[in-house]
Structure formats: structure tokens, C-alpha cells
User: What shape does this take?
Amino acid sequence: MNVIKFVFYPQFIKSVIVPFIFLLIFLLIVFIMVYSFVKIELSRIEEERGVEYEEK
Amino acid sequence: MRKILNVFKEENIVTGYLYFYIHFVVEVICFFVLARLVGDSPLLWFMPLFYDALAFCSQGVIGYVSDRFPNLKVGIIGLVLLIVGFLLFGFNLVSSYISVMLVGLGNAFIHVDGAEVTLHSSKGKLAHSAIFVSGGSFGVITGKLIGSSSISFILITLLGLSTIPFILLADTYREDRSCLEFNCVKKDYKGSIVIILAMIIVAVRSYMGYGIPTSWNKTVYQAIILYVFMGLGKALGGILADAYGIKKVAILSSLLALPFLLIGDNIMVVSLIGVLFFSMTMAITLSMLVSVLKHSPGLAFGLTTIGLFLGSVPVFFFRISNFFVNGAVIVILSMICVVIFKKILKDGV
Assistant: This one.
């Protein structure tokens, strides 16, 4: 329903296009950052597990 | 019953109460702004999407930064952003997008602080963070209601400032920076798998939350009752999980919610029982993520909010209007959640 509104109101598209592009860039950056943070944390945990295993 | 009462005597449970109030006020401010901006205009649906994206998705990054720099006063930074954004909005000094951006980011910072404080002080218990999270539901409906009234924004600003002593007091409980004691997921699964599955549950529950059939919800009074039950469910989820075990509560609440939600489309009392059960898994998914990311509770909390956002995105573009299709979707998605809970969660926790 909202998609239809989006298509049929050109003045509406004009008013949101800049924040919409900003939002897409923001989300892209955030997702890449969060993905790398999770990767860092997981490798840290794996290392700890390895140390624990060796100690046993 | 005694087990439930004992939960309220848990160590540092006061952090949950402190952040319940802070969370409540923060949501009042945010939804006051949204209600004033959006009103009844169907064309302004983009603003809530913009707000959700900023407030929910940024918590992953803020959470990680807060985990790495524990001396950073995340709560105070959040409050400053929130109040500045709110004043700019109130005096109409900048574009409403900038106000919403500041308010959303302030909300994100304060949420992360709440998660950090409650998770670090709870010693592996869920009630603290569950009580903190539940404050939001009460704040959302209050903010929506007073946003559509003629109440002055100056009064709301004062309400926002009233959280300062609460944030400072809660911060004094942020002592323990060691590895968290959450340990509810089986060790057979890789951390990445647990994270993905927990996020799927959060996203699915978020999507379902918008699809719950509530034809009975027509008046302001009924809307208030609905949000009150959502909040109570979130808090009860953590409290019951501490009293009777995480796995039991996760599976039973997911299963028990189904009949009540489906039958209660036109019957308020039945539907509210369903909503109560449905909201209980909130704190459990957080504990699943913290069990993997033990050193990064802020990041873990951020992942749950990203899941919430991802689950809510489809709702901005389309909704299922057929009751039977909607019911079938709810049943299938709930069963997926139950299977994940059964496979991932440890027995006896």
C-alpha cells in the first residue's frame, strides 16, 4: 500500500529522496561495521576456547 | 510463586527499575516527536522508518564502542543528544529530519547504556534487562498519546532532564567489566550460527508483532491496555526465565501464545493473554546473544535491535490483510522459533 503511495506522489518522492539516500548509505556503513565487529569478537572467543582446550 | 518473588530480591535488580524509568521517558520523548510530526498523514510513513533505522541499527556500533571504552558515559551522551534534538524540534529551528536523527541517536545511546548496566550487574540473570526493556512499551503509548495532545514540549523536556539522577545512579553499578556469566546456549553450535539464529528469531517476532490480529483494538483505552500487556510480557519473560528456566519459558511462551493470538482477534482478554506470552521471548534472545558475545554485551544488544529493525522493514511496504494467510504465517514463523529454541538452548537452563 505504501509502495503505491510512493509511486503516485512525485512531490513526496522529492521530499524524501535526500534522507532516503542518506539512510541507505548509513545502513550500509552500519551493517559493514557491525559485521566486522562480530567477526573480531568471534575470532577472539575462538582463540580463548583454543587456549582453554590446550590448558586442559 | 516463591521462586518468582525471589527474583525481585536478586542482587542489583534496582538497575532494572532505574532503567525502566529512563527507558520509559526516552520512549515518551521519541514518540512524542513522531506523533507530532506524523499525525494522521499517511504520506509521512517515511519518518518512522527513518527514525527506526537510526535508533535501532546504530546500537550495534555504539554498543561495540561502549564495550571497548567502558569509561565513556554513553548514557549522558545519549541524553544530551536526545534533549538537543528535542529542543531543536520544539523550537522548530532545523529540519525535522535532523531533529529525528538526533533524537533517534540519543535513544540508541541510552538503550546501549541500559543494556550495559543491566547485563553487567545481573550476574547472569535476565530479570534486570527484561525489566529495563519493558519500560519502552509504556513509554511508546504514553508518547503517542501526549504527542497528539496539546501538552507543551517544555514539560516533556523537564521530564527528560529528570532522568539525569537515574542515569548517574545506574552508572554506579557499572563496575564489573569481566566476562559475563550468561551461558544458555549449547556448545555444539558455532557462535556465528547462534548469532544468526537468534537474530532470525528477533526479526521474526518483530514482523509478527505487527501482524498480530487485534480487530478488538479500536479505542485509546484498548490501545493503552495492549501496550501495557506488551510491557508486562517483556518483564515477565525475564522474571519467569530466572525462576523456572530459560528454555522452558522460551518454548512454552512461544507455543502458548499461538492459540490465544489466533482466537483472540475479536476478544480482547484472550488476545491480551496471547500478547503477554508473545512478548516473553525478548530477554531470552538477548541472553542467547550475550552467551556467545560474553565480552561485548553492548554489541549483543545492538544485534537484537538490528534484528528488530529488519523484522519491521517489510511492514512499512506491505501488510497481509487476509486473516487466514496472516494466521498461517504466524503459526509457521512461531514454529520456526520454537525449533530454534529447542535446538540451541541448553537443557536445564
